[in-house]
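Changelog-adjacent note: as of this version, every example in the card shows the full chain rather than a window. The one below runs 285 residues end to end.
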Amino acid sequence: MAPESLPLAMDRIRHRWESSLKRRTFLTASLASAALAAARAGEAQPPATSNAREYYLLRRYQLQAGPQTKIVESYIGDALIPALSRMGMAPIGAFKLDYGPETPAFYVLIPGRSVEALATIDLQLGRDANFLKAAEPFWNAPATAPAFLRMESALLAAFEGWPRLTPPAATATKSERIFQLRTYESPSDAAHVRKVEMFHKGEFEIFQKAGCHPVFFGDALIGSRLPQLTYMLSFANLAEMDKSWDAFRSDPDWKKLSSSPRYNYEAIVSNISNLVLSPLAASQI
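Full-length structure tokens:
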């Protein structure tokens, strides 16, 4: 497939995303050419607008207890986040897994204004001399002492009804805060579409009424176990998280929405991943 121009690639991706879940097939075929076009043209990200829908790169570093945790945390705080900031990407979330399977693990949430910007991150990092110097212990770790066991990535598109990442107020003051990262897998594309629709039909507002603090909502374009969506909520602590979820489940609007025949005709979510994270010192969220 011949590389296409960056504006054309963006237009095609946006059109497919808004029109049908068939966008997944298109994205798989077009990302390679879009990345090549962006790399060759060296174009900057388009200007941000208040209602422009973001994209997210969510990375998970699976670690082994011991030296790896220090190497990766230093890499994230001293090399990766500063380099991404120079690329105009912010705020960057950096978290450690507190409750969930396969600890220890770190998560990095990177917002971008285009698929191309996120698809070419590693290419751009490899050209940043300051990054390579700061990242050396991580970047060039020997096979006998790797910096991490495995890294997994997912590319997400922000929900239309929640188009921008929203850090909690506690981030500005570095107050105590935890984050809940939840992923919903659906048994079919049709079920997935209806679950996304539920958020836009009132679920955002119910979360906020219940005392949950939404950070982002993203539909997975590329990743494992599709179709799926991922969202993040913030709380002061575990006690507030439990209290807020009790309020959410007992909210009359939630009961009405979840019992609607459109969403209750069969199980539209087949599996839920529920993780509790805390921010690393360098996190901007």
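Structural remarks: Confidence is low (pLDDT under 50) at residues 12-49.
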